[in-house]
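Much of our argument rests on the idea that a fold can be written as discrete symbols. Part of our work consisted of pairing the sequence of a single chain with a tokenised description of its backbone. The amino acid sequence and the backbone structure tokens for this protein are reproduced below.
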Amino acid sequence: MSRRFDHLGDVETFIAVVEHGSLTAAAVALATTPSVISRAIVRLENRLGTQLLRRTTRRQGLTDAGRMYLEHARSAFALIDDAERAIQGEGGELSGRVRLSVPTTYGHYRLPALLQRYTQLYPKVAVELNIANRNVDLVAEGYDLAIRLGQLPDSGLVARKLEDAALCVVAAPEYLQRAGVPRSLQDLSAHTCLPFQMPSTGRIAQWQFRDRDRDIDWTPDSLLQVSEDVLGVVSLAEHGAGICQTYDFIVADRLQRGRLVEVLPQLRGRSRPFSLIYAPHRRLSAASRALIDVLTGQE
């Protein structure tokens, strides 16, 4: 009698190619050669009777069939992981791997303490952390979870709000001594403001204010603009280059030490949400579910 699932090694190879981005990178991760990886993908495609990867001279991309097969294959391996943990008994230690993508703001100022708690609770879980100001494709790029900023589009992803992060406007004392202290929103036009260019749209991120009960969105204008890393505006402001808007949790320590000073406090009151997202149609591993509990304060 032939074995029904003797091709699982090829399936794991396919997942590795997608997650590592190329045959060569997958070969390095699996300690084999690109030719062995290539043959495994061909065998799997022949077995399924369809193409899973579009191959070009530079990279591989998923076909529609490949994307569907990838989702189901990951879910199947997650079930196997859960089954192995279940037979170890409730006293068995959680293991496995979680891939998480977060923006730089959260990655540097909110996540470290939470991740420290998670690694203490589950020391055998491997965490692959991506910190970047880019919205990853969870399914196509193989991420289990991601933290996103702002109002999320209706993408079919599960979203759980982590917090509404309060905004403030700050500048260095030396800048304010040199340029004066703005007393109103109109005063900002005469100051050096530090805009951030959104990587997703190329547009300047609006500054958000609340004047009594009225919300105001204001677009800063400057010869100096920052892109890619939003934390750059804070560093520039701290060194006296101008005024920036950022989150309270980023500059709280700098404000306390006098490195920065809040301006226009009468116009504060706005915030932006940070949310944890994941795909509902994928069965999350026990390690991913445990990380969700830690990030959302349930653990």
Remarks:
- The longest helix spans residues 64-87.
